[in-house]
Amino acid sequence: MDGRVAEVRRWVDEAERIVVLTGAGISTDSGIPDFRGPKGVWTRNPGAERAATLQHYLADDEVRRGAWRNRLEAPTWTAEPNPGHRAVVVLERRGKLLALVTQNIDELHQRAGTDPALVVELHGTAHRTVCWTCGDRRPMPEMLDRVRAGEDDPRCLVAADGQVCGGIIKSATISFGQQLVPQDVQRAEQAAASCDLLLAVGSTLSVVPAAYLVPIAKEAGARVVILNAEPTAYDHIADAVINGSISEVLPELVGADPQL
Ligand code: NAD
Q: Taken in order 86, 92, 94, 96, is the CA torsion positive or negative?
């Protein structure tokens, strides 16, 4: 075991209240590409960022049609958790996981077995849809079935007082330009301020307010460990930075069974 990995492993053993902050990098080994990594969706196709911006999604029906076509093909629906997701479950079993704050929208942490009550999905979930007009929420597969059946920009069918809503449907994720859910941000910040170790995994730490959890934890006196393939925006304040593969290194850091 590499010396730094062994040292962080000792910090994990000593810690009593760990917050894990995850980004898209923890799910790439499940076949879901990240946005900004070397093979990221936006690195390859900068135009894709438009569909993730609320203002464009709401104003431009061509952006919505393209987004629905892409959703049909998304790897998210068939992806399975990988050893990185399962390693976080080990921390919970060891009684050390205070909270798992994720920027991911794929629900793979819950599928791996993390207690949903410990998960803060800062950027929402792709597995549900929301009507922008009436707020009606539904499982995503219901809408994908309608798209497959020929609706290229499905609208809300909720009826009230003899009128069909007709609102724009989007995935229940937080797009750029959209406000995060204040209670989620508050829960995440409180957890970061009261942990004794923050593990930031698979994120460039360039999206705020998620990235702010790192300085919040540091200022509150916690140890900060960053595990990512490439440099991040907060490497300079971390107690340890490990550049490596998440599905290989994270199980070692948490003391997981090698068969994980
Ligand atoms: P990001 O795309 O900005 O950065 C991901 C980082 O992970 C990169 O630095 C990359 O080098 C690293 N990485 C990728 N695979 C790795 C691996 N196997 N081992 C180690 N490092 C690896 O991700 P972000 O900071 O989460 O920001 C992206 C935004 O996009 C988030 O807000 C998130 O909501 C959304 N997003 C989510 C998913 C998902 O749910 N799986 C996928 C793509 C984007």
A: positive
Best mutation site among 34, 43, 125, 205 for ligand 1, i.e. most ligand atoms within 8 A of its Cβ? 34
Which residue has its alpha carbon closest to ligand 1 atom 1? Answer: 36
User: Are 252 and 9 spatial neighbours (Cβ–Cβ below 8 Å)?
Assistant: yes
Catalytic residue among 85, 109, 123, 127: 123
Q: Which domains does the chain have, with CATH numbers?
A: 1-32+80-123+179-260 (3.40.50.1220), 39-78+124-173 (3.30.1600.10)
Cβ neighbours for 162, distance < 8 A, ≥ 6 positions apart: none
d(CA 231, CA 211): 14
Active site annotation includes 127: no
Atom in ligand 1 nearest the alpha carbon of residue 105:
40
Q: How confident is the model at residue 242 (pLDDT cuts 50, 70, 90)?
A: very high
pLDDT digits over 166-208, tens only?
Answer: 999 999 999 999 999 999 999 999 999 999 999 999 999 999 9
251 CA distance to ligand 1 centroid (A)? 18
- Residue whose Cα lies nearest atom 9 of ligand 1: it is 204
> 25: which residues sit within 8 A by CB, 6+ positions away?
34, 37, 201, 202, 203, 228, 229, 246
Residue whose Cα lies nearest atom 31 of ligand 1: it is 103
